Amino acid sequence: MKTNIVKNVRAGFSLVEMLVVIAVIGIIAAIAVPTIGNITEQANNSKAKRNAQNLASVCASAVAAGADLGTSSNVTSIINQIVSPGLTGSKDSGFDSTVFKVPNLSNEEKMAASQHLSYDAQAKMIVYSPR
Questions:
Q1: CA 85 to CA 99: how far, in whole Å?
Q2: What is the pLDDT of residue 25?
């Protein structure tokens, strides 16, 4: 008499294997999500610093060309002068038709940039400090 041996062939994964895989994916996600949020914050901070550097350099160029920042020592009002209409050089400096300005910034970008700027009353100009 001939005996046939039948092996039990299983296709697919067991419930335990699936739960282990889901747990591993959950752990990886828990590690990655805060890191991704931190990268976004660092990018926004870098953008604010870059905008602040641009504003400070435009302000320094305009003051060197004889532009008047007015009597305001409020950094935000000076930023509005540089961004919107632009500062115009004085006739004495030879830059009378030159307009010193930066591309339009949103209000959020202006506020973020102003955190890295201060006003030097003696030199009557904006100073960049990276902090």
A1: 8
A2: 96
